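Worked problem 6 (solution included).
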Amino acid sequence: MPRQDLEYPNESFSTVNRYSTRAQYALKTIHEIVNTCPILHVSFNTPDSPFPATLPMIGHMGSFDSPSADVGDVQDLYLHGYVSSRIINLARAASDGKGLPMTIAASHVDGIVLALTPNSHSLNYRSALLFGHALPVTDPAEKLYAMQLITDGLVPSRWVHTRVPPNAAEMQSTAVLRVRVATGSAKIRTGGPHDERGDVGDAALRARVWTGVVPVWQTLGEPVPGSYNELGAVPAYLEEHRRGRNEEAQRVAEEAAREEVQVASGKKGE
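Solution. The predicted structure is:
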């Protein structure tokens, strides 16, 4: 039997309205964007400010109850933080039992889209939003699971190639938030410039303005040894990840740029 992709439910606050054809709600798509984003921006309300707070944090999707769950399955988001930070304290003090409400944003830029007119310029991108409630992880086993998940999310197999498990002081100073995801959405743009038909029909304009896409991707550079590093060569697991991640990022950006150019009548290239 073919597997049916799971999707997050559409809510008024999570539904993509503008350019809705670019919206995706599949768990697999959203989770992959989140897991490959090195920095997540977490927004939440605080009682002492009229403005929402936003923090850059690291995190990863996972399921402690089902560790082998696929990225397209229902999962929680684990976030790493300091034990006495504001966001941890607010989550700990949540009185409704559900946790601290928050919105998590992840985004990748895959290309700069250059069109005939400034208003039709755009970016190729993959963006995702998750909406959920966060509570601190109190079970030591789940906390260790989440810490390894987040560490290996940055560099696969890094956890086992370090001094583990963390000692008592490290465990006490580190906090992990588990975000029970209520819903989420993604918005993705690929392809070339989408200019007005009138501009595309202007031969003189086309003759003097270059149009197309400059692919953009994040590159993991050559590792720089630390001041007390004594290993002569970069470990294979690190070099394999670096090369594989760079190749995949380049492939995604170039494929997004090569998609067939569409001419949008009366629409700008958001």
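Discussion: Residues 236-258 form the longest helix (23 residues).
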